Amino acid sequence: MAPTRALVTRLVSAATTTTTKSSRPPPFAATATACLRDSSSDRRRTYHSYDHPPPPGAFNNAERQILSAAYRHVPEHGFTHKALSLGARDAGYLDISTNVVPEGPFSLIKYHLVSKREALAPRSAEIFNAPVDCVDGVTPDVAAGARGQLLTVPERVERLTWERLLANQDIIHRWQEALAVMAQPSRVPASLHELASLSDEIYHLAGDLAVDPSWYTKRASLSTIYASSELFMTNDQSAGFGDTRAFLRRRLDETGSLAGALGSIGQWVGFTASAGLNVLRSKGARI
Asked: Would the pTM of this model clear 0.70, i.e. be above it?
């Protein structure tokens, strides 16, 4: 038990640091959705980086082709080399090379995380009946209000978080295997970074414009609430994952302090570390 406890302690320390530093608050009060020209198509598109333009995509073209094809095999084969090999074949590659997908199965997990996060923006437009792009300087929240669709920020956060959880339903029976991979020490920073990005995306899409210290605590709390709800979902047998949504709503209602958020991070890291050890033991490792 001692080695496991030591591993969890190290991961909790990494989680706390990442949650604190993963995102930066807006430097000015005027942080509503901005627009810029997309030079490749001359379209207006939104962004919400307060200091820098959007970074390059997480995957190059070859990686995206293979991972997109491989993802279709995840429900049957999991986040494994087998799924990657089948995806490479489907994408027209003779075999899969570490030069193409250097992180192996973790790249497939990351593809799931990134693609489902990116899908939230167009989905939010459907849910809230608001445009994704700027329209004559009007932000999506204002446009939604004009249609009589006003919701509070907490209500929007709950709805978007639930939408993201629902995006796991086709692979939820494989997600504990993915958590075991994500719990590996070398994968924890990237996993927590994506979790922080998801929380920031949800609050942005929900229309949160706060610039006080709660900017940090709200995102830290949402990160851990999402993670704990995701873990709950892996064992949820209720119709339509109704128990998971009830759990999510309870956690959102209960949250209110950074101390509680940090405790939830510890629970999540402890669970994923334990899941990783159990998977390794199931493969015959003497741990």
From this structure: no
Helix (H/G/I), strand (E/B), else coil: 45: strand
* Residues 131 and 125 sit within 8 Å (Cβ to Cβ): yes
pLDDT digits (tens, 9 = 90+) for 214-245: 888 899 999 999 999 999 999 999 999 999 99
Give the DSSP H or E segment for 269: helix 258-282
Residues 30 and 36: their CA atoms lie apart, in Å, by 16
The answer to whether the CB of 220 falls within 8 A of the CB of 258 is: yes
Structure tokens at 2: 């001692």
| Displacement of CA 134 from its chain's centroid (Å) | 24
Amino acid type, 248: L
Angle at 45 between CA 205 and CA 198, to 5 degrees: 30
- Say what the pLDDT of residue 51 is: 54
Measured in residues, the chain has a length of: 287
137 by Cβ neighbours in 10 Å (0-12 / 13-18 / 19+) ranks as exposed
